TrEMBL record, chain A:
Top-level taxon of the source organism: Bacteria
CDD domains hit by this protein: ACAD (cd00567)
Keywords noted in UniProt: FAD, Flavoprotein, Oxidoreductase
Protein name (Swiss-Prot/TrEMBL): Acyl-CoA dehydrogenase
Entries under Pfam families matching the protein: Acyl-CoA_dh_1, Acyl-CoA_dh_M, Acyl-CoA_dh_N
Length: 377, 401
């Protein structure tokens, strides 16, 4: 047993924390939130230069990390600072799938991505799929040498900025079959591809992606035809580790802000933290923080295990983070009072990051049911 | 014990229902249902429609031009209005200031200000909270000093969380007129024209992107002594009286019922695992749990309303209703965002202003996540839930009032 970070990861954590503390304060971030692109190209380039993106890929893929604890270290720091740049979407999700499944030609993009020169998005969810990974209505039909995609992808994060989209589509089987799903690498300027973008409540941007007879060839497919489900599920596991670590970092910030406020805000002639009614509730938050930290360690530590053990830990962690996150976000706002309701206060953004994380990759209810099914199987 | 409404109550409910069906513009109810801001002009139009009907001031005595409804009738109206997605009437003039003027104001003040509230000529906002005086309201620091001639108070200080202050032309304020006595004994109640030089309104943008509250700054603002309500230094008494009126409809039963109906509608349309979300055992259980709590609270609310109709003033029960009512409303807000899944993520900042064209919203649910965040205020404002619990404990455990 050893719960210490390796020297390399410790260095990465220190470097990233220092960089974000110096360069990503509330005012900077709020300016980015107000911008049309919803992200800073400058910050993106600097994150790449620091090796943040490279840390999310294995050595074989051209990076220097890529394990569960590499993701956890990076994303906890991104979460602590409320970073809205699409590291998760470009690198962990779409970039990860490309690295996992791509042939040599396709993998060439990974190097550009690690260098900060490429954006990507993963277009998988659909209006009626909710959180089911297997439910794909978008079709890919072979027509001579061509493969033709039709469908509607919902709330695709980072779609507007992406140079390439990784798009899931069904080549065979019923709408909810795991078999029959393929992935395609689609350039964002492909004919028939429409991207209707909008801002997200917790920062960043997403889009509805419409595929109307998008013409591809077999060379655009990632991996084998109809057999992408296992890779999608594994990538979602990695993305869930990243996202849970990010939420943990955001929860750290929320509790730190709340602790500071309880110590300085005075009402009735004394700091409000001296009222037992608040002090006990803050103690409960700290207890849940330890639970959350352990849950993230469980998910990260089992990411390289076999499928069942990995997924049990993903679902248990997503479920716990959904519950603990809601508690921390709501209680931090409540204990602050009105000030936390204002957009310019750091906690407002942090609370939105924590809460809205539960709307991606399955919410706390979804993962409770999934956990029940996994342990029964 | 009889849980049924009387025939008169039922007839009244029918009357309210047909009025809403006939007079509530669909454009307004659509906006409310979708969580869009109504805007000043529409607010004023709805105000005028109710005034024309004689239903604008349900809690005012008839002698002042009110409808003089009893508590059960008010409850019925609130329930029907929420179910029909009618706009909320801006309460600051009608249900907060007016009762204070009716009880403590001079004849001149009543004759001048009350008709202007009904006609909509004045839009009032409330100057209570300050940056350092939230839950501890009596610690407020905004000062009012009588000038040497005795004609004007000179006001200096800052108020905050002033709801819709950007639309208001008048503000009623608690100000400190005596620093040498116990906090509560040196406070006065002043009516201030916001066009007076030295008044400045600065917007506060809330975490959901809305502009509904403001800071109001006062720099050497001259207020005629005629605008003092009641006696100098007795404002705390009037403020407390006003707060009992702020607490009418505190349980928000109608809002919760309308909110739960919306959640059910979305849950029937949203698919999860190939079946409607409403059939998902886990989500169904969550909805049922809050519905069960709401059914009980609706009866608690009616029990307290019946006592009030019989003439006894709600005391600690109002605090209980506020705590339970906000817990239930906030749980429904949580379900509403949860129900739409990933479609809770898009940010409808434009939607709040009036248009959400281009935003995906497959079930026409509205900006449910933004509302979830906005309604965190329910357990903070009007005396936070912590303050309410303190009141309950003081009365029920400590034995004091």
């Amino acid at each position: 047993m050893n719960f210490d970070l390796t020297e390399e990861r410790q260095m990465l954590q220190d470097t990233l924390r220092r960089f974000l503390r110096d360069r990503y304060d509330t005012a900077t971030r709020n300016t980015i939130l107000d911008s049309d692109s919803g992200m800073s190209a400058d910050i993106w380039a600097q994150l790449a230069e620091l090796g943040v993106i490279g840390a999310l890929f294995t050595e074989e893929q051209g990076g220097f990390g890529g394990k569960g604890f590499d993701l956890a270290v990076v994303f906890e720091e991104l979460g602590r600072a409320g970073v809205v740049e699409p590291v998760l979407d470009s690198a962990v999700l779409a970039g990860g799938l490309l690295a996992d499944l791509g042939n040599e030609a396709q993998q060439a993009h990974v190097e550009t991505l690690i260098g900060g020169g490429l954006h990507m998005a993963f277009a998988h969810g659909e209006p009626s799929s909710r959180y089911d990974l297997n439910r794909v209505q978008t079709t890919a039909k072979t027509d001579g040498d061509a493969i033709v995609l039709n469908g509607h992808k919902a709330v695709v994060a980072n779609a507007e900025a992406a140079d390439y989209l990784v798009v899931s589509a069904r080549e065979s089987g019923a709408v909810d079959d795991e078999a029959g799903i393929s992935l395609f690498l689609v350039p964002s300027d492909a004919k028939g591809l429409t991207i209707q973008g909008y801002a997200l409540l917790a920062g960043g941007r997403a889009a509805e992606v419409m595929l109307d007879n998008v013409q591809l060839t077999a060379a655009d497919r990632l991996g084998e035809a109809g057999s992408a489900f296992a890779a999608i599920e594994a990538r979602m596991a990695a993305a869930s580790v990243a996202q849970c670590a990010e939420t943990l970092g955001a929860m750290e910030t929320a509790t730190e802000l709340t602790r500071d406020y309880l110590g300085t805000r005075k009402q009735f002639g004394r700091p409000i933290g001296t009222f037992q009614a608040l002090a006990h509730r803050f103690s409960d938050l700290l207890i849940e923080m330890e639970q959350a930290r352990s849950a993230v360690i469980n998910a990260a530590g089992h990411l390289e295990e076999d499928r069942k053990l990995r997924e049990i830990n993903v679902s248990s962690t997503k479920n716990l983070m959904g519950r603990a996150g809601r508690l921390v976000a709501e209680e931090s706002i409540q204990m602050h009072g009105g000030i936390a309701m204002t957009q310019e206060y750091e906690l407002a953004h942090i609370a939105k990051r924590i809460t809205m994380a539960d709307h991606r990759f399955g919410d706390t209810d979804h993962h409770l049911e999934r956990f029940i099914a996994l342990v029964a199987a | 014990m009889d849980l049924r409404y009387s025939d008169e109550d039922k007839a009244f409910r029918d009357e309210v229902r047909s009025f809403l069906k006939e007079k509530l513009p669909k454009e307004f109810s659509d906006k409310i249902r979708k969580g869009q801001e109504l805007g000043r002009e529409n607010q004023e139009r709805w105000h005028a429609i109710l005034n024309e009907q004689g239903w604008l001031a349900p809690n005012w005595p008839a002698s002042f031009g009110g409808a003089e409804w009893n508590a059960v009738q008010r409850h019925i109206f609130e329930e029907e209005a929420a179910a029909a997605n009618a706009p909320r009437i801006v309460p600051f003039g009608l249900s907060m200031l007016a009762p204070v003027l009716q009880k403590f104001g001079s004849k001149e003040q009543q004759d001048y200000w009350l008709p202007r509230i009904l006609s909509g000529e004045d839009w009032w906002c409330q100057g209570y909270s300050e940056p350092g005086a939230g839950s501890d309201l009596a610690s407020l620091k905004t000062t009012a000093v009588l000038n040497d001639a005795g004609t004007h108070y000179v006001v200096n200080g800052q108020k905050t969380w002033t709801t819709l202050g950007q639309h208001a032309n008048m503000i009623f304020c608690l100000v400190r007129t005596n620093k040498d006595v116990k906090q509560q004994e040196g406070i006065s109640f002043l009516l201030i024209d916001m066009d007076t030089p030295g008044v400045e309104v600065r917007p506060i943008i809330l975490l959901d992107g809305t502009h509904e509250v403001n800071e109001v700054w006062f720099t050497d603002v001259e207020v005629p002594v005629e605008n003092l309500v009641g006696e100098q230094d007795k404002g705390w008494t009037y403020a407390k009286y006003l707060l009992t009126h702020e607490r009418t409809n505190i349980a928000g039963v109608g809002f919760s019922q309308a909110g739960l109906a919306a959640v059910k509608r979305v849950a029937r349309a949203e698919m999860a695992g190939g079946k409607p979300l409403a059939q998902n055992p886990h989500f169904a259980a969550r909805m049922a749990q809050v519905e069960i709590d709401l059914m009980a609270m609706a009866t608690t609310n009616l029990r307290i309303i019946s006592q009030a109709a019989a003439g006894s003033a709600p005391g600690v029960e109002a605090s209980m209703l506020k705590v339970k009512g906000t817990i239930i409303r906030q749980e429904i807000n949580d379900l509403a965002r949860r129900a739409v899944g990933a479609y809770a993520m898009p940010f409808a900042s434009e939607a709040v202003e009036g248009s959400n064209a281009g935003l995906p919203d497959p079930h026409d649910a509205g900006p449910v996540a933004a509302q979830y965040f906005n309604y965190r205020k329910l357990s903070i404002f009007g005396g936070s839930n912590e303050i309410q619990r303190g009141i309950i404990a003081k009365v029920k455990v400590g034995g004091g009032a």
